[in-house]
């Protein structure tokens, strides 16, 4: 085949591919739909789908329907990279939403940068991500550092903790959260008696907790997602450990409480979102979510909902679904989410939204304290 | 310090009993039938999910559910052998291994579709309150699960060594042609062995679903650990699977307790590498005498 034919063939295939963009705007979504955090990834997608439906019911963006193009990244760096390559090169999406785990997001950031496609995460909280100087990456959620800064004082003053054991899942999220909380709590004079980690999908925590019990803490800090966290707190009760337990991850959710059962009672969770947040925007969201999925939205459902709305608003402001225009609009965004306002700093870290400390009581996250994430 | 070591050892023995139970099923299928079964973890997963449906959705009694899991998964194992493994019996092990990889992917995704991604709890009548035995903490659900595991292991041992069926099994796996010559229905023995292995995986899945959670995606790690135990103990060695399971459980627990639980899974695989270098046929493998 001569060069001329190849060029012609490329033009024809480009022309064939082009009409697909005409009637809808595709948003590329990479979330774990299988694997040990599949459940949380599905919550994100549920929130995102609800947002897209609402936007489309109101006539879409720029007169076009919003269409979610969802890929399974399995929370793994390699799978997430192939998903990103597929979305960018084959489906030609103008913007990416994802990934879930910080390690997976870290892997797709250079892909997005190289292709000049903005990437917005609503979940990955490892502080390092926004320090990479990647101008195509945005984080529409808290970092562990911001969460720790907001809550350390409350934990110290209200719960009167003096000796803490830190347990976290062995990845960027768990290690990041443990590091930041330990730093913030140590600055307040709280003693660290144990720091240890466990793998995603661990089922037996007796050994870890036996170590924890032997260190005699008066509080146990846990960084874990729904599945790991719920099994862990159940085993805390089984071992008869009566210290206060507080955690970060998706703890203030109906499913966490269902899985942990009675063991969930009295546990504290520092979260950027709880279904019981009292603002009007959240109440409408919770009602719509319940009608759709017959359950209360959790932290990740809210994240999916927020991120799709943020991106849609950016496209509307940009008046074009082009990657560079979307990035420029994202930098100036001022979005009212279900948990307060979202704006981005120069490093593309979101701020202005609320975070809450909740106590789980009889299947409900009761809000103990609220703080707003200040501009860092 | 001694109390701590005691607690770690008990934790390890409990986990080891579960490893042993799920590895026994694999050692039957891998060691005797020479089928590299990558769907073993999925049989375990199915046991857990079915037990969740029976107890959580249909509201059946835990013990009745366990009995139903045994029947359903025994039948399922027999059907899998009849439809997928039997046609490939005369082919090399690679063909059956590939089929079981396909089966594993098919089962995970079917159950993701049917049961969703959320983890589920298998309801038990036992209280979750701690039970103190001196300085050691344990609870009733775990004691019960260990007891069932012990009964299942002992039962299988007796079945293989004390019954006519067991005799036929041993004969078949020592020399298939000779067994067929003396009138043993070899195909039936293969089918039964596969069903037995499947059932053991499913029972351990149902028991552990009551202690941990049942979820469609747990299979991979279970398969991996079962392979570790089987290699540790020696392929097809019954005592090897039991002792291998206990060794792995206790080693993981002590390592996790005194060194770091972050790298707990390293220990099993380090054992396997070491063992393959030093005793490539496993701790308890006697090459001429299987079962």
Could you walk me through the main structural features you see in this protein, from its secondary elements to its overall organization?
The complex is a heterodimer of chains A (376) and B (291). With 376 residues, chain A is α/β, with parallel strands linked by helices. Chain A has two domains: 3-142 and 280-344, Response regulator (Rossmann fold), CATH 3.40.50.2300; 145-271 and 357-372, 3-Layer(aba) Sandwich (Rossmann fold), CATH 3.40.50. Chain A contains 13 helices and 14 strands. In chain A, the strands form two sheets. In chain A, strands 6, 7, 8, 9, 10, 11, 12, 13 and 14 form a nine-stranded mixed β-sheet that branches. In chain A, strands 2-1-3-4-5 form a five-stranded parallel β-sheet, with helices on both faces. The longest helix of chain A is centred in the N-terminal third of the chain and has 20 residues, at 38-57. The model of chain A is unreliable at 14-21 (pLDDT under 50). Chain B has one domain (2-278): ABC transporter involved in vitamin B12 uptake, BtuC. The model of chain B has no long low-confidence stretch (mean pLDDT 87). Chain B has helices at 2-32, 40-57, 62-85, 93-115, 140-162, 164-174, 176-181, 186-211, 219-233, 238-258, 266-278; strands at 131-133, 136-138. With 291 residues, chain B is mainly α. A two-stranded antiparallel sheet of chain B has the order 1-2. The N and C termini of chain B lie far apart (40 Å). In chain B, α1 (2-32) runs antiparallel to α10 and α5 crosses α6. The chains are: A alpha/beta (376), B mainly alpha (291).
């Amino acid at each position: 085949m001569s060069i001329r034919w190849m060029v012609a063939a490329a033009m024809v295939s480009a022309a064939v591919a082009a009409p697909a963009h005409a009637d809808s705007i595709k948003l590329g979504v990479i979330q774990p739909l299988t694997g040990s955090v599949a459940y949380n990834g599905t919550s994100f997608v549920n929130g995102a789908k609800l947002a897209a439906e609402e936007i489309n019911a109101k006539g879409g963006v720029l007169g076009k329907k919003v269409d979610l193009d969802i890929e399974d990244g399995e929370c793994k760096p390699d799978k997430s990279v192939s998903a990103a390559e597929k979305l960018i090169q084959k489906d030609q999406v103008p913007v990416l939403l994802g990934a879930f785990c910080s390690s997976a997001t870290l892997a797709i950031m250079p892909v997005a940068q190289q292709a000049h496609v903005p990437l917005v995460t609503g979940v990955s909280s490892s502080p390092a991500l926004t320090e990479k100087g990647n101008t195509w990456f945005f984080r529409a959620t808290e970092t562990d550092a911001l969460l720790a800064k907001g809550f350390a004082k409350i934990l110290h003053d209200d719960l009167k903790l003096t000796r803490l054991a830190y347990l976290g899942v062995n990845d960027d999220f768990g290690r990041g959260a443990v590091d930041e909380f330990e730093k913030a709590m140590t600055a307040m004079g709280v003693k660290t008696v144990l720091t240890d980690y466990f793998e995603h999908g661990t089922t037996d925590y007796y050994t870890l907790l036996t170590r924890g019990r032997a260190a005699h803490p008066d509080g146990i800090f846990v960084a874990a997602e729904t599945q790991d966290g719920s099994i862990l707190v159940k085993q805390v009760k089984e071992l008869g450990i009566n210290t206060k337990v507080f955690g970060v991850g998706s703890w203030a959710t109906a499913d966490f409480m269902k899985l942990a059962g009675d063991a969930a009672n009295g546990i504290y969770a520092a979260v950027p979102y709880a279904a019981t947040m009292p603002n009007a925007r959240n109440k409408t969201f919770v009602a719509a979510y319940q009608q759709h999925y017959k359950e209360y939205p959790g932290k990740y459902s809210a994240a999916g909902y927020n991120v799709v709305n943020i991106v849609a608003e950016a496209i509307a402001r940009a008046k074009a679904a082009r990657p560079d225009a979307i990035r420029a609009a994202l930098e100036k965004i001022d979005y009212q989410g279900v948990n307060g306002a979202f704006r981005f700093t120069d490093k593309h870290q979101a701020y202005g939204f609320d975070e809450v400390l909740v106590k789980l009581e009889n299947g409900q996250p009761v809000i103990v304290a609220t703080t707003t994430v200040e501009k860092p | 310090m001694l109390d701590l070591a005691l607690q770690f050892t008990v934790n390890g023995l409990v986990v080891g009993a579960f490893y042993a139970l799920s590895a026994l099923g694999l050692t039957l299928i891998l060691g005797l039938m020479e089928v590299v079964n990558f769907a073993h973890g999925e049989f375990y997963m199915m046991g857990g999910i079915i037990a969740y449906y029976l107890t959580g959705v249909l509201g059946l009694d835990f013990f009745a559910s366990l009995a139903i899991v045994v029947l359903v998964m025994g039948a399922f194992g027999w059907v899998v052998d009849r439809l997928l493994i039997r046609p490939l019996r005369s082919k090399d092990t690679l063909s059956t291994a590939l089929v079981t990889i396909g089966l594993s992917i098919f089962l995970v995704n079917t159950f993701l579709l049917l049961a969703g991604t959320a983890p589920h709890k298998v309801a038990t009548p036992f209280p979750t309150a701690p039970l103190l035995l001196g300085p050691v903490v344990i609870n009733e659900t775990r004691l019960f699960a260990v007891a069932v595991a012990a009964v299942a292991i002992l039962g299988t041992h007796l079945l293989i060594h004390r019954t006519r069926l067991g005799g036929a099994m041993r004969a078949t796996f020592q020399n298939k042609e000779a067994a067929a010559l003396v009138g043993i229905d070899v195909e039936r023995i293969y089918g039964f062995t596969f069903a037995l292995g499947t059932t053991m995986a499913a029972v351990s899945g149902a028991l552990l679903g009551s202690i941990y959670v049942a979820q469609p995606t747990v299979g991979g790690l279970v398969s991996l650990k079962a392979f570790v135990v089987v290699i540790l103990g020696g392929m097809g060695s019954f005592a090897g699977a039991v002792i291998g399971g206990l060794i792995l459980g206790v080693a993981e627990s002590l390592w996790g307790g005194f060194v770091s639980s972050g790298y707990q899974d390293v220990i099993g695989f380090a054992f396997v590498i070491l063992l393959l270098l030093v005793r490539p046929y496993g701790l308890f493998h006697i090459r001429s005498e299987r079962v």
